[in-house]
Every structure is written in structure tokens, then in C-alpha cells.
Write a structure and sequence with these properties.
single chain; 6 helices; disordered N terminus
Amino acid sequence: MREIDNDDCGRGDEAMGESWPSVLRYWRTISAETFDDATKTEVITFVRATTSTIPEWQRATSGDAEAAIGLVMNCKAPASIGIKVDFPMTVLLSCAFDDPGAALMMSDKLGQMPLEARLRTKLATSWQVASLLLSLRRPADPGERE
């Protein structure tokens, strides 16, 4: 199991010579509609196998979308992308497959990343559409009906 202490999400510190798992790059290379069940399972399994002593991280890596959104919501756009960006974005990704709020946050954060402009737009748009589709699939809360 990996233990990540990511208390500074604004920096994109590149790993110095260490090879990180490719699953950490999926959020910034694969559009929402391209994820198949096997790839989704790979992401979720990786995230769930991670440990932390920080309660917010524990909730986020257990699949709590609100906690995952909280990890990245107030992070500033990084100058570069490294493990301190890849890991929280991968945790968010693991929730974005099923949660419209997490998918929308993926879209928002992708729009701020130092990626090639065309790729950034493609990825951000794909998660915006995913958020909309997930919202349409959710059953309405009976308390919200008029």
C-alpha cells in the first residue's frame, strides 16, 4: 500500500528519478468517455489501496466524492504536474466515474492544468459532458419534487 501525504496541492513537484504508476496519469491523458470498466476498476483499486493518516484523505480514498472534491477545490493551478497534482486528481477521478459533482470538478480543474491547449479542452469538455450525463441518470430526490 502507498502512503501519500499531500498537504501542498498547489505544487507539481516532479518525482526525482522515481517511476510512478501510469494510473496516476490517466486523469490527464484519457477523456471521460474512453474509460472502460477495466480501466475504471484499475483506478479505483489503486486509490482504495492507498493509505493515509489524514481523515479527509481517508474519506476521499474510500470513495467519498465530497472529500475528494475538497482535496482539490481550493488548489491553485500548478506550474507543472507531478505527484502532488497527479495523486489528488487521481483520487478525484476515482469518484468522477459515478458522481456528477466530482466529474464537474474534474472538468474545472482540467481547464486550469498546464497541458497542451487542445488536450486540455478535450479532457475538460469530456468531464463536463460526463457530469451532465451522470446528473440525468440520478433518480430525483423525492423531497425535491414540487
